[in-house]
C-alpha cells in the first residue's frame, strides 16, 4: 500500500495561512499599518481603491529594509521580533509571527519599494501568488511603500464572498480607527478612490478621539487614571446620561494593541449598574499597560483576544477605577448615611417676629351635615352661611351689599354677625326612584369590547376562548407592513422639521449610511451632508411624533452594520422593523376602547398577525376548555 501523507507546497501552505490571517481587505490594512508602526513610522498614508478589492497602498516613513530583509520578509515565519520561544512573553511590538506578508503575497499581487535612511538606492520586489516575479534596485524615498493589488485573484471563491464596497470600506475604517486611537503620536491619512476621508495629525489622546468620532464626544467623557504595581489603567469613560442602546464607542487596548475582552466589559458595566437603563451601553476608551510577561497575545490569529494572568485582580481594579471616576466627577448621586439619630431640625418655641399672629378660623359648632334629609345641589346654598336649622328668604343676604354706582363693578360687603346670620332656604328634595327615567347620556355608554391588562396586553373574547394580544408587538406588526408598503411603492410621507437636527457619524459609519440612504429617503427621512461625517436631518416620516430623529437614524445605521445587509430588500426590511419598533406604542401606555378596537382591527388586517417580523409571538389564545378547568 502506497503512502498517502505528503508535505504541502509552500504556495498552498501560505494560502491556508492566509485564510486565518487575511479574511478581507481590512485585514491587509491592519497588518501593513501595524508593520509600519513597528518600523518607527511617524507618518502613514493609506490609499484604497474600490474598498481594497482593486488596490491597497500603505506608505510610511519608517526605517525601511535592506535588500536581503525585503526578500526574506515575504517568507513564512521570517521575523525580526523574536529569536526563541521565551521572546513570545516579552513582546512590545504589534507583529511577531512573520505570517502577514507571506499570507498577503499568497493571495494578491504585491509590490514593495523600500529604502533605509542614508542609502542612495532602495529595493523593489514584485510578488504574485507567492512567486517572486522581479527584484531590482530603485530610487525611492526613505521608508516602505506596499502596494497590494487584486486581492484573492487566485481564489475566486474567497473573492466572491466579499461584501459590497460600502461594507468592506466600513470594515477598513473600523480597523483604521483602532490603530489610530492607540497611536496618537503618529499622523495618519486615509484616501478612498482619490477622496480624503481622514486626516489625523499627531496630537494628544483626547484630541485624537475627537478627531475620529467628532468634537461632540468631548463633553461626554470623564478622565480615568489609576496606577498600581500590577497594571496601569488610563483613558476615558462616558457620562451615565450619554448611554445609548446602540452605537456606543467601546474600546479596550493593552500595551498599544486593540483587544476584545467580555470579562473586563462586565466590570465597566457593573460600575454603571443602576445609573443607566437596562439594555443601554456606555462609551469608553480604556488603555491597559501591563508587564508583557503577564499576558499572552498568541492565542488568536488576529491577535484581538488576549489572556491575562491576573484577570480577577485587574477586574476589581478596573471596576473600582471606573466607580472612583464617576464619584469624582459627581456622576453618582451621593447620600450621607453617617448621621446618627434624628436630623437636627431647628424648632421655634415662639414666633421669631413680634406682632405676627397665626391665622384664625371661624365655624359654626352647631352645624351637623347629617341633619340634612338628602344632598342638595351646590348652587342651592352658600358654604359660608348655610345653617340647616334656620329657614328664611334670600333677602337678608343682600343686606350690606351697596353698589357705589350703576356702572361700577366694586361692591361693599358688610358681614353679618355670627349670631344673626340668615339661613339658606332649603326645599325638601325627593329621593330619586330607581324606576325614574334616566338621562339619555347616562345609558349611551357601550360596554367595552376589549380589556387592557396592566397597560401591556389586550384581552378580547373570541369564539374559541380568550385571546391575549401584546399591544406593542401588535403595533410593530402593523407599522412594519405599512413602512414596507411605502418603500415598495416609494410613497413616503415626509414631515419637514422646523429646526433640523444634526447627527454625527464616525468614518466607519458613513459608508453604511450612504448605502442605505435611498431606503431612508423612501421611509421619509431627508438627510443632507454637512461634511466631516455630520448630517442635517431636514425631514422625518410622518407619524413618529415624540421620537428623537437622531436616535432613530443612529440605531438604523448600527443595525445595518450588525446585520451586514447588502441586498436592498433586506435593508428595507431591517429599516422598516427598526422604525416600527421605535414608533410603536410602548408597554404601559393606557389605551381607550376606541384605540384598542382600532389596534385589533389593524392587526387582523395584516397577512401574518400571529408573529412579529422578527418571529416573536403577538397573540395567544386561552381556550374555553382550559378556562372551565380553572373553576372546577
Automatic annotation (TrEMBL):
UniProt keywords, alphabetically: DNA damage, DNA repair, Endonuclease, Hydrolase, Nuclease
The entry lists its GO molecular-function terms as:
endonuclease activity
Give the source's domain of life in one word: Bacteria
Pfam families, alphabetized: DNA_mis_repair, HATPase_c_3, MutL_C
Which regions are flagged for Low complexity bias? 373-388
Q: Which PROSITE patterns match?
A: DNA_MISMATCH_REPAIR_1
Q: Region (Disordered): which ranges?
A: 358-388
The DNA mismatch repair protein S5 domain is annotated at 209-327
Report the Gene3D superfamilies cross-referenced here.
3.30.230.10, Histidine kinase-like ATPase, C-terminal domain (3.30.565.10), MutL, C-terminal domain, dimerisation subdomain (3.30.1540.20), MutL, C-terminal domain, regulatory subdomain (3.30.1370.100)
Which residue intervals define the domain MutL C-terminal dimerisation in the entry?
449-591
InterPro entries annotated for this entry? Answer: DNA_mismatch_repair_CS, DNA_mismatch_repair_MutL, DNA_mismatch_S5_2-like, HATPase_C_sf, MutL/Mlh/PMS, MutL/Mlh/Pms-like, MutL_C, MutL_C_dimsub
| Record NCBIfam families | mutl (TIGR00585)
- PANTHER family associated with the record: DNA MISMATCH REPAIR PROTEIN MLH, PMS, MUTL, DNA MISMATCH REPAIR PROTEIN MLH1
**Task performed by this protein:** This protein is involved in the repair of mismatches in DNA. It is required for dam-dependent methyl-directed DNA mismatch repair. May act as a 'molecular matchmaker', a protein that promotes the formation of a stable complex between two or more DNA-binding proteins in an ATP-dependent manner without itself being part of a final effector complex.
The family classification in the record reads:
Belongs to the DNA mismatch repair MutL/HexB family.
Entry protein name: DNA mismatch repair protein MutL
Amino acid at each position: 500500500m502506497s503512502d498517502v501523507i505528503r508535505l504541502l507546497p509552500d504556495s498552498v501552505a501560505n494560502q491556508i495561512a492566509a485564510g486565518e490571517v487575511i479574511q478581507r481587505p481590512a485585514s491587509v490594512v491592519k497588518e501593513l499599518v501595524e508593520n509600519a508602526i513597528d518600523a518607527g513610522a511617524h507618518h502613514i498614508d493609506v490609499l484604497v481603491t474600490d474598498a481594497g478589492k482593486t488596490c491597497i497602498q500603505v506608505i510610511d516613513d519608517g526605517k525601511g529594509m535592506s535588500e536581503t530583509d525585503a526578500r526574506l520578509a515575504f517568507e513564512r515565519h521570517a521575523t525580526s521580533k523574536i529569536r526563541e520561544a521565551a521572546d513570545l512573553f516579552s513582546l512590545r511590538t504589534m507583529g511577531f509571527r512573520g505570517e502577514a506578508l507571506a499570507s498577503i503575497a499568497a493571495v494578491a499581487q504585491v509590490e514593495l519599494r523600500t529604502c533605509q535612511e542614508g542609502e542612495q538606492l532602495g529595493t523593489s520586489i514584485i510578488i504574485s501568488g507567492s512567486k517572486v516575479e522581479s527584484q531590482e534596485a530603485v530610487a525611492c524615498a526613505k521608508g516602505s511603500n506596499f502596494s497590494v493589488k487584486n486581492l484573492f485573484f487566485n481564489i475566486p471563491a474567497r473573492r466572491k464572498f466579499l461584501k459590497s464596497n460600502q461594507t468592506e470600506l466600513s470594515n477598513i475604517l473600523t480597523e483604521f480607527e483602532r490603530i489610530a486611537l492607540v497611536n496618537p503620536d503618529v499622523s495618519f491619512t486615509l484616501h478612498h478612490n482619490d477622496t480624503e476621508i481622514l486626516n489625523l495629525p499627531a496630537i494628544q489622546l483626547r484630541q485624537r478621539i475627537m478627531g475620529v468620532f467628532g468634537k461632540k464626544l468631548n463633553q461626554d467623557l470623564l478622565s480615568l487614571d489609576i496606577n498600581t504595581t500590577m497594571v496601569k489603567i488610563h483613558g476615558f469613560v462616558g457620562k451615565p446620561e450619554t448611554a445609548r442602546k446602540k452605537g456606543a464607542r467601546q474600546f479596550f487596548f493593552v500595551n498599544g494593541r486593540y483587544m476584545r475582552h467580555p470579562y473586563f466589559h462586565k466590570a465597566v458595566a457593573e460600575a454603571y449598574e443602576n445609573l443607566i437603563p437596562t439594555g443601554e451601553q456606555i462609551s469608553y476608551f480604556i488603555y491597559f499597560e501591563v508587564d508583557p510577561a503577564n499576558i499572552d497575545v498568541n492565542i488568536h490569529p488576529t491577535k484581538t483576544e488576549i489572556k491575562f494572568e491576573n484577570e480577577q485582580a485587574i477586574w476589581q481594579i478596573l471596576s473600582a477605577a471606573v466607580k472612583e471616576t464617576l464619584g469624582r466627577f459627581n456622576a453618582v448621586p451621593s447620600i450621607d448615611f453617617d448621621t446618627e439619630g434624628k436630623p437636627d431640625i431647628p424648632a421655634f418655641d415662639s414666633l421669631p417676629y413680634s406682632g405676627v399672629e397665626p391665622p384664625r378660623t371661624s365655624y359654626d359648632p352647631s352645624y351637623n351635615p347629617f341633619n340634612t334629609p338628602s344632598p342638595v345641589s351646590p348652587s342651592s346654598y352658600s358654604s359660608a352661611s348655610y345653617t340647616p336649622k334656620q329657614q328664611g328668604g334670600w333677602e337678608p343676604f343682600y343686606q350690606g351689599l351697596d353698589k357705589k354706582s350703576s356702572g361700577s363693578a366694586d361692591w361693599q360687603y358688610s358681614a353679618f354677625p355670627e349670631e344673626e346670620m340668615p339661613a339658606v332656604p332649603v326645599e325638601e328634595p325627593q329621593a330619586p326612584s330607581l324606576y325614574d327615567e334616566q338621562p339619555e347620556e347616562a345609558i349611551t355608554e357601550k360596554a367595552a369590547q376589549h380589556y387592557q391588562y396592566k397597560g401591556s396586553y389586550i384581552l378580547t373574547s373570541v369564539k374559541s376562548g380568550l385571546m391575549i394580544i401584546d399591544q406593542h408587538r401588535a403595533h410593530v406588526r402593523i407599522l412594519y407592513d405599512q413602512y414596507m408598503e411605502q418603500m415598495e411603492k416609494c410613497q413616503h410621507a415626509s414631515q419637514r422639521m422646523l429646526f433640523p437636527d444634526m447627527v454625527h457619524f464616525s468614518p466607519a459609519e458613513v459608508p453604511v449610511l450612504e448605502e442605505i440612504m435611498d431606503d431612508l429617503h423612501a421611509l421619509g427621512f431627508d438627510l443632507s451632508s454637512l461634511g466631516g461625517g455630520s448630517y442635517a436631518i431636514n425631514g422625518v416620516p410622518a407619524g413618529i411624533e415624540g421620537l428623537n430623529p437622531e436616535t432613530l437614524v443612529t440605531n438604523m445605521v448600527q443595525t445595518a452594520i450588525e446585520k451586514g445587509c447588502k441586498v436592498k430588500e433586506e435593508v428595507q426590511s431591517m429599516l422598516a422593523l427598526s422604525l416600527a419598533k421605535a414608533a410603536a406604542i410602548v408597554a404601559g401606555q393606557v389605551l381607550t376602547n376606541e384605540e384598542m378596537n382600532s389596534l385589533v382591527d389593524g392587526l387582523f388586517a395584516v397577512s401574518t398577525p400571529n408573529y412579529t417580523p422578527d418571529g416573536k409571538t403577538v397573540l395567544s389564545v386561552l381556550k374555553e376548555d382550559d378556562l372551565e378547568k380553572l373553576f372546577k
